[in-house]
Automatic annotation (TrEMBL):
It comes from Bos mutus grunniens. This is Flavin-containing monooxygenase. Belongs to the FMO family. It holds the Pfam family NAD_binding_8. The lineage of its organism: Eukaryota, Metazoa, Chordata, Craniata, Vertebrata. Its cofactor is FAD. The gene is FMO1. Its main location: endoplasmic reticulum.
Amino acid sequence: MAKRVAIVGAGATGLASIKCCLEEGLKPTCFERSDDLGGLWRFTTKVCSVRKRPDFTATGQWEVVTLCEGKQESAIFDAVMVCTGFFTNPNLPLDSFPGINNFKGQYFHSREYKHPDIFRDKSVLVIGMGNSGTDIAVEASHLAKKVFLSTTGGAWVISRVFDSGYPWDMVFMTRFQNTFRNSLPTPIVNWLIAKRMNSWFNHANYGLIPEDRVQLREPVLNDELPGRIITGKVLIKPRVKEVKENSVVFSNTPKEEPIDIIVFATGYTFAFPFLDETVVKVEDGQASLYKYIFPAHLPKPTLAVIGLIKPLGSLLPTGDTQARWAVRVLKGVIKLPPSSTMIEEVNERKKNKPSGFGLYYCKALETDYITYIDELLTAINAKPNLFSLLLTDPRLALAIFFGPCTPYQFRLTGPGKWEGARNAIMTQWDRTFKATKTRIVQESPSLFASLLKVFSFLALLVAIFLIFL
């Protein structure tokens, strides 16, 4: 009989977990508290509790109690995959803003924002310069009378359109770039990143340059912000010192700025209210999870947390790869190390000691995208073998190493292998520009391009030689 797996949450990682369970012959049941997407979905079903069975040490089974339309039900599952993510509880730190209770205007968390019409002819303050806060400030600036964007530490802002019009992630996120970055001392990497970021516009002149340039903070993706700042539509300000009835005072300036609406783009916290703290305990914005997935102390590895990670790259393929590995563990194909070994690794990761090379991630849950995924792919024998491919399929090897590290690479081999992966990799640039090349132009052959291909091949040989030394 197939193992029954309870999947909590029908978001992107929940759907990936369903697919991976089905691929491995498991029987998933997905619980989703909303009436939106979610094998077997149970919409508008709240998971009240997930508890270990009395015989957990022997069976590893869980009792899942749910509530649907006022009716409580209980079911037994062989394993549980928690896919609720980290955008669960809006973080609204009102205590950090003296006077907010006296404010007569409107304030709300960015999660409640739906449409910019609310800002028409208003003076708007957006607190927090992450991607959400920046997007809201830019949208508001088209309708509002004035928009302030408050940031405590600044941020690097990059355009989605990178060198030569290529998508930024397809240029930045390659195995070659990743290997190159991780081989350099961190100060040099930070200098190169600062130089690259400032090549679009000088962040210092726009009041955006990060105060801490040693630890990497998630960059802000926004194509419009510099243009809105230079035209005076968005004003960058430091942190809020005090909130008054109809205005705010920013730090380092005594002037009061009239404000009608305050948007708190101050992020989220996460929790697992349906789990006992003895199973998963959240401390300092992270949980003690082996490989960011399995509680290290459980005698039976039958509970996995999927998607509780912030890679410098796409979360969707990261969650999918986590699910592929976790399902193999739940099925018993992959054995985890002893608890003591896993706990030691978790504690070392929590210390967040800089290695001195590559990027230094400053926040909990942040990690290197390619390095982390390769770690999981290696465990399920799905990581592309560049050395072998160089001998059998050199064109593919070049595309994998120098080209975008797209999820097609993760399906070339191993469980869940896709026969169309190679062709998808070799034609990904064609699909990328199909949407933009609506007018076909004739391009003359370039000698430089031909020489560049030869050089790239030689560089690949050198890189692989160094890697396998």
